Each structure stands twice: as structure tokens, then as C-alpha cells.
Amino acid sequence: MLKHFFVALFFCFGIQLNAQDLGFTKPDYKAIEKEISDKNSKFFYPKLMERLVKNDTLLTHDEYRHLYLGYFFQPKYNAFWTSPNDEKLRTFYAKEKLETSDYDEIIKLANNSLNDFPFDLRQLNYLAYIYHLKGDETAAKIASFKFHSIMNVILSSGDGKKCETGFHVLMVDHEYILLNLFEIESKGQSLVENCDYLSFEKGVYNVDGIYFNIEKMLENEKKVLR
Fold first, then answer.
1. What residues contact residue 136 under an 8 Å CB cut-off, 6+ apart?
2. Torsion-angle region of 131 (φ positive above 0: left; ψ -120 to 50: alpha; else: beta)
3. Is 189 helix (H, G, I), strand (E, B) or coil?
4. How far apart are CA 174 and CA 169, in angstroms?
5. What's the pTM value of the predicted model, to 2 decimals?
6. Which three-class secondary structure state does DSSP give residue 171?
7. Which of 32, 91, 96 has the alpha carbon at shortest distance from 62?
8. In sequence order, which residues have a C-beta less than 8 Å from that of residue 207 and are 6 or more positions away?
9. 192 three-class SS
10. How many angstroms from the chain centroid is the CA of residue 42?
11. Which segment of the chain is annotated as a signal peptide (predicted)?
């Protein structure tokens, strides 16, 4: 079921991924850290996060870029993060068909996860799907807008063709969410310098694999493991 709702959401809400139109810009982490730490900047992190939590749909691509990539510098950032409700949510993922009585519990669990980590793309996507099933299209579009805005940040951070221009992600799970969204299956994963390289079956896609830049993840892992 999990794979199906990733595909379904891409078509349901009319919010298109448009990173190709935006082009890609390799993140300048020093500049991002400076901007999000400046109280006089429009990218001051606490203010941006407050707007995100309040479901502000006027947040721009640049603001989402500072939110997502700026999270690397937040004390709560943990490359090993998992949802506190992961086990409970997976029981719903595994169901062939959800009952209407499941919706409110899923919404509660997913929102609890997002309160802990606002870039939990898996739960954002699932939440949009559940709101859609419940008939709450306003809430579904807000969750979907967040999901697609974050995906656009990832897709506009590189082109994935080589390590130097790999897509930048907060966690490994986001790599696989991107592949799921475009119905791409990975056949292997390897570490190449500061990148995760996900390889594909030869001849199936236009490329043999995609690079994800995980330099900030690796820095965080070193801190966590000290």
C-alpha cells in the first residue's frame, strides 16, 4: 500500500514538482547558517519554523530551502532519527485496505511524528493521503504542499549525476522517498566519498544510478557516535 499512495499523491492535488524549472544550486552552507542565525534576516530560523508549523502556504522556495537545509544546524538534528510512532504507523502501512475508523488514529500519530521532526516526508505524504481519504481536502492540500515544497528543495540542490552535484538530504530515508515518488527501484547502495550512490538495473532508466550528498549527515553521525 505504501508505494501506491506515494504515486497517488503526485496526481491527486495538482501540486507539481517543478525543480527542473528552478534549476539546481549547490547549497552554500556557510551562507545558509549565517542567514538563519541573523535575527534581522527574513530567513531567521525560529521565524521560518514558526510559519511552517502554522501551515503558512505563502512560504517561498528560498524559505523552504533555508528551512530544510538549515535544519542541519539545529540542535535537534539527528541523522539517525526515527519516528517515535514508527512501529504503530507501520501496522497501518501494511494494511491492504484502511478502515475509516483508522483515519483519526493515523492523523494523530503522523502529526505527533511531525511535531518531533517537521521534515518527516513519509508521514507528511501519508498524512496528505489520509486527509484526502477522510474528505478534508484543505488539510490534504496543506500537507501535500509541504511535501512537494521540501521535495523541490532536494531536487533543486543538485542533479544527482555525480557526487559533486548530488542531491542534498537530511536523512537516508529521504533518498528512498524520492525514488518511490518517481517509481524508481534501487538495486544497490554504496558510499562514494561524501555521497550515497543508489544504483539501478542497467538499461531500465536513463541513468545507472543517482548520487545523494550526505556530507552533513556524516558530520552529524560523527558527533552522535562520539
1. none
2. alpha
3. strand
4. 6
5. 0.89
6. coil
7. 32
8. 160, 161, 200
9. strand
10. 22
11. 1-19
Amino acid letter, residue 38? D
Tell me how far apart the alpha carbons of residues 222 and 226 are, in angstroms, rounded to a whole number. 6
Distance CA 63, CA 52 (A): 10
Tell me the pairing of strands 167-168 and 195-199. Answer: unpaired
How is residue 12 written as a grid cell?
491527486
At residue 139's C-alpha, the angle toward residues 112 and 108, to 5°, is 25
The three cell numbers of residue 66 are 533555508
pLDDT tens digit at each of 226 positions of the chain: 544 444 444 434 333 444 445 578 999 999 999 999 999 999 999 999 999 999 999 999 999 999 999 999 999 999 999 999 999 999 998 888 899 999 999 999 999 999 999 999 999 999 999 999 999 999 999 999 999 999 999 999 999 999 999 999 999 999 999 998 888 899 999 999 999 999 998 888 888 999 999 999 999 988 877 6
- Helix and strand numbers, DSSP H then E, in the chain: 11, 4
Provide the grid cell at 224: 552522535
Cell digits for 24?
Answer: 539546481
Would you say 108 and 134 are in contact if contact means Cβ atoms under 8 Å apart? no
